[in-house]
Design brief:
The strands form three sheets. The chain has a six-stranded mixed beta sheet, sandwiched between helices. The protein starts with a helix and ends with a helix. 22% of the residues lie in helices and 32% in strands. By secondary structure, the protein is an alpha+beta fold. It has two domains: 200 residues, Gyrase A, domain 2; 130 residues, Elongation Factor Tu (Ef-tu), domain 3, CATH 2.40.30. It contains eight helices and 17 strands. The longest helix has 14 residues.
């Protein structure tokens, strides 16, 4: 860790951050240091071609003006990680939870073999801000006078990379990837117009946007479609092979999908990923599993959960056991439509 990075970590620890989103005013625009995220940089003349054979999305045609979601699967088609991916300069970046960064980097490194590709942990040299709300544009104007206009568009400048990600609650959201020097210099001005909050608020906004994130607890639990990953642009069915590709494709085209991710609220907090949920119609076996959950008040949480679609057709669904807290389902910001259904109605 270099001196400047150490200075940023000391600086960020000194900031007063609201830890509970409920303390935010309704509709407030906010900024959060995303210190819980890790970053892998791939470089070398074979970096794109190597990564293209490993993950669920197209890397070969990734341009400097865009970002993409992507997954990394086991040979059985189960997700080991989900990424936000982009290219800047000579590097391709993979963003994922910091808790998964080291083991996923090690696993990818095993398959480099003779390819001219290098992987590096740059988690401590690139600072990631999450910014959300309608006031963000004006706040960012000194550094980015022009903003990315649609989700997963990216702009690079001397101050780093700015990526627009999926909207949440009808408000735009962005990630700014900056050097520690620029982060320290920008924070005081940004925090005047944007409410400084902890990363928890950003994770909650990801849930509200319907964007799942694989964590250590949920590795190898889901085929991508079970958490809607192809619906949000995380899977390219026309690209070449990657680990688990045959199973992912079979899940897509052979029969109607029976499990999906849904959004819900529940009167409980501190909900662990991979917690099972149970239907009153079939109380003896779980009908689904929590993918991600975050408190949205002192007494309740929002969660993204994978569930049998049949469990949504009647009865009630409960957290942990059939006598646990009841889940109340809400509308996702995108439609759950199988590709086969879309093709039939075209």
């Amino acid at each position: 860790m270099n001196e400047i990075t150490s200075t940023w970590l000391d600086f960020s620890r000194q900031q007063a951050l609201d830890t509970l989103p409920a303390t935010m005013a309704a509709g407030a625009s906010f900024i959060a240091p995303l210190t819980d995220l890790g970053l892998i940089a791939l470089s070398g003349e074979d970096a794109a071609s190597f990564l293209h054979t490993q993950i669920t999305n197209d890397v070969q045609n990734l341009t400097a003006g865009q970002a993409r979601l992507a997954g990394y699967c086991s040979p059985k088609g189960r997700l080991l990680a989900t990424f936000l991916m982009w290219k800047s300069g000579d590097n391709i970046f993979l963003q994922l939870p910091r808790s998964l960064q080291a083991p996923i980097q090690k696993r990818l490194q095993m398959f480099v073999m003779r390819a001219k590709a290098r992987l590096a942990d740059v988690s401590d040299t690139q600072i990631i801000f999450g910014l959300a709300g309608h006031a963000v544009g004006a706040a960012l104007a000194p550094w980015f006078p022009t903003l990315p206009t649609e989700p997963y568009a990216k702009i690079d400048s001397d101050y780093g990379s700015l990526i627009r990600v999926a909207d949440a609650n009808s408000a735009p959201r962005y990630q700014w990837i900056a050097s520690p020097q620029h982060a320290i210099a920008a924070w005081p001005q940004l925090s005047k117009s944007l409410q400084p909050v902890a990363a928890q608020a950003w994770r909650l906004s990801e849930i509200e946007a319907g964007i799942p994130q694989i964590t250590p607890e949920t590795q190898e639990q889901f085929v991508p479609q079970m958490i809607n990953f192809e619906l949000i642009g995380g899977v390219n069915f026309k690209k070449g092979c990657y680990p688990g590709q045959e199973i992912v494709a079979r899940s897509q085209y052979l029969g109607k999908l029976k499990r999906r991710a849904v959004l819900a609220s529940v009167a409980a907090i501190n909900i662990a990923a991979a917690t099972e949920v149970f239907s009153s119609n079939d109380p003896d076996q779980p009908c689904g599993m929590i993918v991600n959950a975050e408190a949205d008040s002192a007494h309740s949480s929002r969660c993204l959960l994978e569930i049998k679609l049949a469990a949504l057709e009647g009865g009630t669904v409960h957290l942990g056991a059939v006598n646990g807290a009841q889940l109340h389902f809400q509308t996702l910001p995108y439609s759950i439509v199988d590709v086969t259904d879309a093709e039939l109605s075209a």
